[in-house]
Fold this protein.
Amino acid sequence: MNTTRPGDAEFRATGRVSAYDPPPDGVPRGGAATAGRLVAFAGLSLVALFVVPAVVYPFIQFGSAVTGTRLIGFGVMACLSMLLATALSVRLFRERWSAATRLSTDALGRWPIVGGFAAGWFAIAIPAGLLIWLGVLHVVPAAPGSWEQGALLALAILAPAALTEELGLRGYAFTLLQRAWGPGAAIAVSSVLFGLLHLFNPGVTPWSMAMVALAGVFLAVVRLAFDSLWAAWLAHLAYNFVQVAVFHSPVSGLAIPQPNYRTVAAGADWLTGGQWGPEAGAAAAVGMLGVTFLLAIHARWIAVHRRGWRFDIEWRPSRRRES
């Protein structure tokens, strides 16, 4: 296995910053400075999560009384809170929004949008579909209703929830961790925290926590492969939307009512995910790992060479693809 460091010209020709370049002025250069900024970001996030709902809740309460969508309102408040905390942190430390969050116009594009959404969709749709075909997931009747209304309800709940979690774990904090200790540490820390974030969900088990942490690794890889938080958000949203709106199954132990049919586990929980939803099954782990492998090829972290009937895999961790 050969690993090489790309030449400086290879990165600077694009005008983008690589992991090998020194941090630009105004960003932390040591562990202590990074830890201070992480603590400040966490503190601002907690304050925002109290302040924003206090300001916005009267409007949410009025809207909920009219539309009956209280759950959507709480998701929007949490999302606004994390956006505010991120903006204040970036402003406080005089950083550029684009470099600090990767939730900017230059992080948009065909690959981040289509690729991120497709990564989340296929990582769960193919494993769950195979489990239905094998008979270990069953589709059973449910109360009739409008599929479109159910899908829109799921989208309205899941979209702000996914963005909230991405801003908190794979936004500014992820950037700080990556700068100070490298992408491996950023992936590990954010994924463990992602698992702990679901500690109090209904039906939680050590296995489901481990699977959520693995999903955190998957989403971090999406973020890095496309250098875009938009991509991670869309992958996260697609991953959850498929479970709720397509298969009508629980997601992270939470059931959002959907009409006409629902998918229930008929096999072992370790394979199907049981009451937690398909994402907690080993089949989902295989799906995420398979898509992660394809993302690594897209990002040029690995190269696959065919030699007759044999395939050789070359690991190239110093490579990165510009989106």
